[in-house]
TrEMBL record, chains A, B:
Pfam families: Thiolase_C_1 (PF22691), Thiolase_N (PF00108). One of its GO terms (molecular function) is acetyl-CoA C-acetyltransferase activity. Its EC number is 2.3.1.9. PANTHER family: ACETYL-COA C-ACETYLTRANSFERASE, ACETYL-COA C-ACYLTRANSFERASE. This is Acetyl-CoA acetyltransferase. It is an enzyme of class 2 (transferase). Residues 4-223 form the Thiolase N-terminal domain.
């Protein structure tokens, strides 16, 4: 297996991008990434696109070919393009296929993109419910806020998590988002903002939930041995791990533990030959505040049941022991579902290059990502180091 | 790169499977493939599922995880599952990801599945239009029969193809389908059946068009060096090639030549180090009769403009110089879009094992597949040999 490096990254501003179509979002992020990587179209061997539900959001399938065409790779160049989907983990999985294509020797320079255009429809909650078990969850009325509310209830009951601790996850992510010029929300909030916001599915309130966003993010990878032909700051991929679980939440032995996060995390640390303490910062999948707490526990950074206190003590904020979601996370940076997994990697690239600006993690050397599909039926996790 | 072999294959009967749900189709084909490969769930490292539009056909995304769960791989085993989509080429691309996962060394035993449940909705033509350029083709009224009718008009005008020659493609594929117990249509037809059938989009009539079908197909791959632990008849993957093109037909320089088929075919023959004459039979993407003629020309088997005559002379039928679509092709075997690419490989496995029954190609040693997304924005092609 060949070693792989990220040589470029670009993203659009996330948000309600009513001025910009699905394909234009891809082009905007794609051109930014290609310029960042100093790569020309003729050098691209393959393209992978993560998108959850373009078929329902914009009536368009076959989006790999569409994106390749609109970034100028589809015609005479005949660049092969593949869409990858695993609900909100689609972006992370597109990156994983790009890593496989390079490490197998099939391809050299490969693009991994993620995109979603969600704000054009009125039934986004129903579209997103396609990530759960349609027959046994969605048809019974369970939406995603409802499913994660069940996780939160179970967790609070078992571990005594307070409402204030849960709110602090959103407060911290808005603090980070206010320092990211690409974030959907760039304003700070307080615990009372969260606790007085509209109840969505008890105990989750509006500010516990990530928003419906438009956006795209793109990264470029190549064999590590060739990376310095393109950039002085290649980012080495130390681990690429993926795990699955039952599609339905009710089939899991423990609502508060995401078994696929545990499995993918263990696999990632084994591949990277690292300890938890070696990780300088992590981007995790905070589709709801409760999900961030489960994630940092299930990845093994803190013992089960203690992530609320860890967060309350400021340890997950910039300057803390383990900065979590410096991009603003899904909560503040936004959550165009297919784009999120690539945006996490974009943020790792910024941090490891020392280009994090006002949200820079001091001395960042090693970063990690965790990207979730559904309530944890798919989890993909990567570890990166500045090469 | 490690060499890869197919060690098992299974499929459902294709057709109007109103008795069987999306997930049950997958389970039926999956169990058949696992039994054929003598593989237990504990041995599976990864699963790839090709499905074009489960989000619109059955309201379900995240179908990788769903399928893994329902074949018993999603719970404690945490098997990673990934959906791959490129319209009607989704199945072929799922197989290609499985090959990449094995050849990279990431995984050993990998499942590639394809599935579509199409007959539950009334707007399947609009769903399928998501494979074209929604904004510049579908919104303007172009359906897939319409787009392929433009190809047929252009081809007939340029090369003098007769209506009878075009009809013969369907006649020949029904002849083959009548010998495949898994085919949607198992009846023979005549040229007059085709030429007197309802006009769909001139010059294409009902019997020039592949049907809307339900079905699933599954194959299992592993490193070639381990294949004999599972089977006495491993099938070696000699080439895996993919190429792209513009998403919209109107952006191509020549309607009658599928540039991505030319590119993928050339790449496949280079990888396999073979000549065209070495191929004993081929499964190509005959979504419409005209597409089969273009395919065997663009793959280089006959000169441009001569495939009609070649077909009329019986050379593409069992016993001819190059049997094409012995499964019955999309026309007679049926076309559950995501499943078709895997079904093509299933047929190659049957033939190379000598298990083709009444449709066996005498002395078959090397087989090839060509699977198309849209009007050729994605083409994936594989070559196989009995190991």
């Amino acid at each position: 297996m060949r070693e792989v490096a990220v040589i470029g990254a670009g993203m659009t501003k996330f948000g309600e991008r009513w001025d910009t179509s699905f394909r234009d979002l891809c082009t905007e992020a794609g051109i930014a990434a290609l310029e960042d990587a100093n790569v020309a179209g003729e050098q691209i061997d393959a393209l992978f696109v993560g998108s959850m539900s373009a078929g329902r959001f914009v009536g368009q399938e076959h989006v790999g070919a569409l994106v390749a065409d609109y970034v100028g790779l589809g015609g005479d160049l005949h660049v092969p393009a593949t869409r990858v989907e695993a609900a909100c983990a689609s972006g992370g999985l597109a990156f994983r296929q790009a890593v496989a294509a390079v490490s197998s020797g099939m391809s050299d320079v490969v693009i991994a993109a993620g995109v979603e255009k969600m704000t054009d429809v009125g039934d986004s909650t129903d579209v997103l419910a396609g990530a759960a078990d349609r027959e046994w969850e969605s048809f019974a009325g369970a939406t995603f806020p409802g499913l994660y509310a069940m996780i939160a209830c179970d967790y609070m009951h078992k571990y005594g998590l307070t409402r204030e601790q849960l709110a602090q996850v959103a407060v911290k992510n808005h603090f980070h988002g206010a320092r990211n010029p690409f974030a959907h929300f760039q304003n700070e909030i307080t615990q009372s903002t969260v606790m007085n916001s509209t109840l969505v599915a008890s105990p989750l309130r509006l500010f516990d939930c990530s928003p419906v966003s438009d956006g795209a993010a793109v990264v470029v990878v190549c064999p590590l041995e060739k990376a310095r032909e393109f950039t002085d700051t290649p980012i080495k991929v130390l681990a690429s791990a993926q795990a699955g679980d039952t599609i339905a939440l009710h089939d899991r032995p423990d609502f508060s533990t995401m078994g696929a996060t545990v499995a993918a995390g263990n696999s990632a640390f084994r591949q990277a030959k690292l300890e938890r303490k070696d990780i300088d910062f992590v981007e995790v999948h905070d589709c709801f505040t409760i999900a961030e707490l489960c994630a940092i526990e299930d990845l093994g950074f803190v013992p089960k049941g203690t992530a609320g206190k860890f967060t309350e003590q400021g340890e997950t904020q910039l300057g803390g022991k383990l900065p979590v979601n410096t991009s603003g996370g899904l909560k503040a940076c936004g959550h165009p579902v297919g784009a999120t997994g690539i945006k996490q990697i974009w943020e790792v690239v910024q941090q490891l290059r020392g280009e994090g600006g006002k949200r820079q993690v001091e001395g960042a050397e090693i970063g990690m990502t965790q990207n979730v599909g559904g309530t944890g039926a798919t989890v993909v996790s990567h570890i990166f180091r500045r090469a």
